[in-house]
Amino acid sequence: MKTIQSLAPQNVWKHFYSLTQIPRPSGYMQPVTDFLLNFGKKLGLESFTDEVGNVIIRKPATAGMENRKGVILQAHMDMVPQKNNDTVHDFEKDPIETYVDGDWLRARGTTLGADNGLGVAAILAILEDNTLKHGPLEALITKDEETGMYGAFGLKAGTLQGTILLNLDSEDEGELYIGCAGGMDVTASLEYKEVTPEEGDVAVKVTLKGLRGGHSGLEINEGRANANKLLVRFLREAVASYEARLASWEGGNMRNAIPREAHAVVTIPAENEEELLELVKYCEDLFNEEYSVIETPISFTAERVELPQGEVPEEIQDNLIGAIFACQNGVMRMIPSVPDTVETSSNLAIISIKDGKAEVKILARSSSDSMKEYLVTSLESCFSIAGMKVVLSGGYSGWQPDVDSPILHAMKASYQQQFGVEPAVKVIHAGLECGIIGANVPGLDMISFGPTLRSPHSPDERAYIPSVPKFYEFLVATLEQVPLK
């Protein structure tokens, strides 16, 4: 049986294996930070963290390459912690268990962490290899990209010395990205006083799972089901037709991941329980029919649970369900001049309603600042009408393309020379750190590229093994051909 260590190029995969053994979910960065610093220091390289916790490692130019422009190799150290409902895994303690499935590397029941672990692994391989030819190098490995790009936001001008930034966080080998969407976090919240369930009511927990989920930037255009959007359809009908009352709701756990699972507890008159169970079965069949081509089998089940002490007041419940039902989710508009690329979208990512507090978290994206503002305002209006307080945070503008970029021209020529075809040059709908870093450090010439990954931000995340040698060879060749200062 193949293992990571047996894959080529071994100098990349061995470092990726090391990263799989280090817990590194967003927000839990100290173990991987220590690993990276120790790695650089053991090589005798200048290694330090900046004031927000980004790791910077500097490697001098090789002999004869001192007159080349300085290159910043950039990736992020954290990974998205997503697992299947039946998988027992503690992302702050347990290593990621991987296996080779034909041409793909996968994890058992969890995210793989190839986003962006393979980018970090490639950087470590470059830093370690003294046979390569390159100008002055800096590794910039940022923290907490997945939850808010906090490392990129905190990067201060003057920290870096290079003028070219190679971001290794794209997910299609053979494509060079020169622009990305901007984003905004939208959080709607409301506090309420719970009321006591009616005498004679029973409580039923409904659980929706089995959805594919995925990256809310890269895969938002694939029409995948959103667990919160499916669940609200059931809840609205249960309330309207069977006198159900909402006690609690939990769905999704990451802003940038399409929610795969959601569950709610409702109370209902005992005499209506059987009809409610029939509605659950009807919805399960309906959802599977609607998404048969896109999703794997969707599971929607119900079970009797202990009657909760409190539930949401009826008027507030109706307002919440109405707002969630009406909330914009998915693709809003494609780029008019590039109709195969998403311009504007939103992800109804996280819903938590329990213990007297309701909270809804959405990630809005757009490569157009005006369309982003329009989308955010419409989301704000939707939840304000329901009486919720709406807070906007973490906003950033998109990275605007520069088709005259010197490093772009050099990399296009290099790829053509190596592989006999031109790389595709694209703008990506996902949020890359390039836009934020470029705003904090003006004047950088930036390109994003990487190996081929699929379904990042979900337990179906996988890395296409044959793409990794090409990605790494292209990176090495790029460093050899960096323009002169």
UniProtKB/TrEMBL annotation:
<dbReference type="GO" id="GO:0070573">
    <property type="term" value="F:metallodipeptidase activity"/>
</dbReference>
<dbReference type="GO" id="GO:0005829">
    <property type="term" value="C:cytosol"/>
</dbReference>
<keyword id="KW-0479">Metal-binding</keyword>
<dbReference type="InterPro" id="IPR036264">
    <property type="entry name" value="Bact_exopeptidase_dim_dom"/>
</dbReference>
<dbReference type="InterPro" id="IPR001160">
    <property type="entry name" value="Peptidase_M20C"/>
</dbReference>
<dbReference type="GO" id="GO:0046872">
    <property type="term" value="F:metal ion binding"/>
</dbReference>
<comment type="similarity">
    <text>Belongs to the peptidase M20C family.</text>
</comment>
<protein>
    <recommendedName>
        <fullName>Cytosol non-specific dipeptidase</fullName>
        <ecNumber>3.4.13.18</ecNumber>
    </recommendedName>
</protein>
<keyword id="KW-0378">Hydrolase</keyword>
<keyword id="KW-0645">Protease</keyword>
<keyword id="KW-0170">Cobalt</keyword>
<keyword id="KW-0862">Zinc</keyword>
<feature type="domain" description="Peptidase M20 dimerisation">
    <location>
        <begin position="207"/>
        <end position="292"/>
    </location>
</feature>
<dbReference type="InterPro" id="IPR011650">
    <property type="entry name" value="Peptidase_M20_dimer"/>
</dbReference>
<dbReference type="GO" id="GO:0006508">
    <property type="term" value="P:proteolysis"/>
</dbReference>
<dbReference type="InterPro" id="IPR002933">
    <property type="entry name" value="Peptidase_M20"/>
</dbReference>
<keyword id="KW-0482">Metalloprotease</keyword>
<dbReference type="Pfam" id="PF07687">
    <property type="entry name" value="M20_dimer"/>
</dbReference>
<dbReference type="Pfam" id="PF01546">
    <property type="entry name" value="Peptidase_M20"/>
</dbReference>
